Amino acid sequence: DKEVRAIFLRLFAQLFQGYRSCLQLIRIHAEPVIHFHKAAFLGQRGLIENDFLTKVLNGMAFAGFVSERGPPFRACDLFDELVAFEVERIKAEEGNAPKVIKHVRELAEQLFKNENPNPHIAFQKVPRPTEGSHLRVHILPFPRINECRVQELLQEGLTRSQGAPPATRGDKKCVVPAGPPVGMF
Predict the structure, then answer these.
(1) pTM (2 decimals)?
(2) Does residue 161 lie in a domain region?
(3) Cα(8)–Cα(104) distance, rounded to whole angstroms?
(4) Which domain of life does the UniProt lineage start with (predicted)?
(5) pLDDT tens per residue across span 36-84
(6) For the chain, how many structural domains are there in total?
């Protein structure tokens, strides 16, 4: 799973390399608007006639990509690092399959580490029931639920959550690396 994701991560890094140099932040509105210059991006890469890339850039998914990844000050991730710093490595590995596979495995490992930051935490396994355990007669019935107590606990939780400040994500924001300009490709 992670290796397939790493392959797509490399693909999109190659496809969108240098996209940040074609972003323009327009501040005439109360909320800044990010505009992507498709013609400049395609022209600098010499891909004006490329129908596939033109359709990708005109799609709603790319518009969402620009709105999420366009701000110059936000939490960075593996994709940003790949686009900014690994473009030359991807280009150099283009014809060498073992190096590509090695890089894909490294990316897959980083994706795994991002999703599982504490690998040393072991999950407790539930033991399999013994033979004939369902025939035992000493099994206690499930206790009755006190509906009044449940309502009290719900009400107590609601009053506590109304006075609490709203939860916020603790993403560390940083300046997104721009990477090399598009003209270098």
Answers:
(1) 0.58
(2) no
(3) 10
(4) Eukaryota
(5) 888 888 888 888 888 888 898 998 998 888 888 877 777 778 888 888 7
(6) 1
